[in-house]
Design goal:
Number of strands: 10
Distance between the termini: 27 Å
Number of domains: 2
Oligomer: single chain
Radius of gyration: 19 Å
Helix content: 25-40%
Bound molecules: zinc ion
Strand order of the largest sheet: 5-10-9-8-7-6
Shape: globular
């Protein structure tokens, strides 16, 4: 990705965007949003990142590992480490039999009336939601310099393939009211993207093709959408 230097970087960021504590005096980390394990190698340079407190950073890493691994298993149809496309998921499954068993329990096979075997994966929704919200806060801060301390009013996720054609089209068209809506604040990274088109595809910031993209939009409510592995669509609103 291109490096876009903006005021968000120079302005003193006083608090952790996740727990609202003052960063002064706390141990901090540069937190990549999304976590690098979502992406495949070679990873793009200049990945979006936000400074957060180390405690939050550590707290999220288990949920992120779960989300990446769960999704990888759904897409490969198995918890077999050797059959994962995602390297981080393969490592986590090979390393811990307990973790693998936990994800295995999320899988239910059943027979249709026609005798076909179908598989349903039931995720730990709370854990997935924590990752969705964490990423959305990070994207909003990285693009707009907007810290969102409150609980979101809406958190949603669904596989793209389960959406109707019109819902899918609505979800994808993040750009259609950009002209009418207030433009992003001058000096925000999103403003630079809107004018230069850097890493921007129809309103979506593409972190890595096929792996992760997101869109932040502000019209009264702040809305963050993301697509993981061109499989899972997510949306958070404040
Ligand atoms: Zn924190």
């Amino acid at each position: 990705m291109d490096r876009i230097e903006e005021f968000v970087d120079e302005r003193q960021q006083a608090w952790c965007i996740h727990c609202s504590r003052w960063l002064a005096g706390l141990e901090t980390n540069e937190d990549h949003v999304p976590t690098k394990s979502f992406l495949s190698k070679p990873r793009p340079h200049n990945l979006p990142s936000v400074t957060i407190c180390r405690e939050c950073n550590n707290g999220f890493s288990r949920d992120e590992q779960y989300a990446v691994t769960f999704l990888s298993c759904v897409l490969s149809g198995t918890t077999e480490p050797d059959r994962q496309q995602n390297a981080s998921a393969a490592r986590a499954l090979a390393k811990s039999a307990r973790f693998r068993a936990m994800i295995d329990r999320a899988k239910t096979e059943y027979q249709t009336l026609g005798g076909e075997t179908r598989v349903v994966w039931q995720p730990d929704v709370e854990r997935i939601n924590r990752v969705i919200i964490k990423n959305a806060r990070g994207h909003a801060y990285f693009e707009y310099g907007e810290p969102l301390m409150e609980t979101p009013s809406h958190v949603w996720a669904a596989p793209l393939g389960t959406m109707s054609a019109s819902d899918h089209a609505d979800f994808e068209s993040v750009n259609n009211c950009q002209e009418l809506a207030a433009l992003p604040e001058v000096g925000s990274r999103m403003m630079t993207r809107v004018f230069t088109g850097q890493d921007l595809d129809d309103g979506w910031v593409v972190v890595q093709d096929g792996a992760y993209r997101y869109a932040v939009h502000q019209t009264g409510v702040l809305r963050v959408r993301s697509v993981w592995w061109e499989y899972l669509a997510t949306e958070v609103k404040w």
